[in-house]
Design goal:
Length: 127
């Protein structure tokens, strides 16, 4: 595979740091794509996770990662009801990209209380 491309599950690559890859991460939260769906086959779930992982891998620009993380924070809280699956997805993105609440506050002025409320469950569970 040529440099700067990550494979999507449908074998079409995302370009490194492309708007398409960043939008894929955001869209996954909006449509609840990473949620565990008992009605889906294991193969379909693996394919969705593979597409999501390919999008995460394609975004390696730190500024773009920070921006996408901030968008996820605000979108997850938009309906004032953040479920555990949304939290898990946001934590997955933050962990994969090694982004912290403090980084988003410093770089993009995202209030710590917004980010920590989504990341907090992981700290409690891991304690």
């Amino acid at each position: 595979m040529s440099a700067g491309l990550e494979k999507k599950a449908n074998n079409r690559p995302y370009r490194k740091n492309s708007p398409e890859a960043a939008a894929r991460v955001v869209a996954a939260l909006l449509v609840g794509e990473q949620r565990i769906d008992g009605g889906s086959s294991a193969e379909r779930r693996r394919a969705r996770h593979a597409r999501f992982d390919a999008a995460l891998d394609a975004v390696d620009d730190r500024n773009r990662q920070h921006l996408v993380c901030a968008v996820l924070i605000y979108l997850a809280d938009a309906d004032h009801s953040i479920d555990e699956e949304e939290k898990a997805m946001v934590r997955r993105v933050f962990g994969r990209w090694n982004v912290s609440a403090e980084t988003l506050e410093r770089e993009l002025n995202v209030p710590l209380h917004r980010t920590r409320s989504l990341l907090e469950a992981e700290r409690v569970a891991g304690a």
